[in-house]
Amino acid sequence: MSRIQMTTLPNGLRVVTDTVDTVETVSAGVWVGAGTRHEPANINGVAHLLEHMAFKGTARRSPADIAREIEDVGGQINAYTSREHTAYYAKVLKNDTPLVFDILADILQNSVFDPEELARERTVVLQEIGQSHDTPDDVIFDHFQSAAYPDQPLGRPVLGPPEIVEAMTRDEIMGHMQRNYGAEAMVLTAAGNIDHETAVALAREHFGGLKRASTRETAAGVYRGGEYRENRALEQVHLVVGFPAIGYHDDDFYAATVLCSLFGGGMSSRLFQEIRENMGLVYSIYAFNAFYADCGMLSVYAGTGPEMVAELMPAIAAEVRRLPDTLEQGELVRARNQLKASTLMALESTSTRCEQMAQHLLIFDRIVPLEEQIAKIEAVDLDAVRRVARKIFAGQPTLAAVGPLEGLEDFESIVESFRPAALQYA
Question: Annotated active-site positions, please?
Answer without folding.
Answer: 51
